[in-house]
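for the writeup, i need someone to sanity check this before i put it in the appendix. the sequnce is what the collaborator sent (i think, or maybe the updated version? ugh). structure was predicted straight from it, no edits. if anything looks off just tell me and ill rerun, i have time this weekend
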Amino acid sequence: MKVRYLLDTNVLSEPLRPYPSPRLMELLSGAADSVATAAPVCHELQFGASRMRPSKRRRLIESYLVDVVRTTMPILPYDERAAHWHAVERARLVAAGRTPPFVDGQIAAIAVVNELVLVTANVGDYEPFAGLTVENWHG
């Protein structure tokens, strides 16, 4: 199956929650062969885990990144095409007085240049980006 969806950090981390959203888990399961994530998303998850003291929770997150994320889905890079799109779009948004967080721009760029739908619970954070299709699987 062809990759159709790019998972944002809050979607990719949902299975780690004590009580994950049943709707999101069902959609993730149904789309398992058509999802990818972005290198900046992996960075956010690893950075969060790396800031934690050694603990069962930290080990769980690190194991999830290695055993689940890296082995079950493509991790798309922030490459030259994404960097170019991001620079042009960031300049447009800054000129309009709507400076987005840098990492959101990276994730949006990876989705756009790979023609993927970004799946996130933070739809409003990505609304300013032109040409980006966003879905919220949280409900």
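DSSP finds seven helices and five strands in the chain. The longest strand covers residues 35-38.
thx in advance!!
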